[in-house]
Amino acid sequence: MARNGVNVGIDLEQAAIAGAQIRGGKIGQTLMAAAVRALPEGLVFEGEVVDVDGLAAQLKSFWKEAGFSGRRLRLGVANQKIVVRTMEFPLIDEKELEAAIQYQAQEAIPIPLEEAILDYQVLATAADEEGAGRQKVLVVAAQRDMISRFTEVAKKAGLSVDGIDLQAFALTRAVAPVVPFIDQGGGAQSSEPLALVHMGSGITNLVVAAGGMPQFTRVINLGCEALVQALVRDRGVSHDEADSLRLRVGLSGGPDDDIADLEADTVAEIHRVLDAACESFADEIRRSIDYYHSQGPEGQISSLLITGEGALTRNVPQYLSEALHMPVSLGNPLQRVTENRTKLSQAELELMAPRLTIAIGLALEDEE
What we know:
alpha/beta, about 35% helix, 10 helices, Dna Ligase, domain 1, 5-stranded mixed sheet
C-alpha cells in the first residue's frame, strides 16, 4: 500500500483524540503534524462510539486546530465487537483463499456473516509434514454497525475515511522493533515473539508480534482511567488532581526523591492505591501471555513494550516488570519517523509520543 503520499491517522480514545500526519517518501517518513486533545466524557466507551454528533464536532475542531491537510483519514478500531482468529489454509490463489475464509468463518467467528465485515492478512507460509504448502492467516471480523458509526462520525465532521485498520496492526507497525541492517542483511523485523501493550484511557490493546506481524491480539476493557478513578475514590480529589498524581507519583518500584512537595506517608499511600488498581491489569496481561504460550506457537515471550497514556504513569515499566517477571520498557513509535516537521520540538514530541502510537501506526505507510 506504500504510495509515497500523505496519510493522517486518527485515534479516537475514551478520554482523548490523537492524530498524526505522515508524508512517505523514498528517503523515509516525515511527521508533518501531530496533536493530542482531551475528549469530554460520554463520546466513546470501551472502544465504541457512543455519541456520533458529539464526537464528530470534536473531530472537526481537532482537525482544524491540529493543522492537518486534506480531508482524508485512517481510523483504528479495537473493542469487543471485533473477533480475531488465526486459521490455516493450503497454498491457494487469492480468490480461492477469500472463498475458503468466508466458508470457515461461518463456524469460527461468532458474528453472523451478513452482519460482519471480514478482512485477513497472511502471516506466514510453510510446508507441512507431507511437504505440501500451508499458510497461516489472521482473520478479522467486525460488526458492520459498529464500523458504520465510526464512518458516520468522519462524514459528519466533513472528512472521508481512507481506511479502517485494527489497532493491533497499527501498534505493531509503529513499535515492533526492527533488527539493524548489520544483523540481518536488511531492515528485517525481529522474529522473536514480543508482547506489545498499548494502555489507553478506557481499553488496552495487547499484541504478540513476531517477524513484524501480529500473531495474537486481545482487547482488555481496562485502561489508565481505572488508576485515576481509584485515586479519586481513595483520596477524595478531583479527576485532574488524581491524574496528576498518577503521572507525578505513580506506582511503586522507582525512586521518590524528587517528590518533595508530598509527605512520605502520602506518597506511600498513593503507591498502595495505584499498585492495587494496577494489579488486575497485570493479571490480565499475564493471563493473555499464558494463553498465547498454551496454544503451542514457537518461541516464548521474553519482554514487553508498553505505549499509550498508561505508559506515562510513573514507574509503570518497573511495576509490570516485577509483576510479570520479564523486562518491560517503553515502546518507541517514532523509530520509523525520519524527520520531525511538526510545530513541536523534538523534546515535546518525544514526551507526547506514547499517546500518539496508534495514530502514527495508522499513518505510517506499509513497507513493500
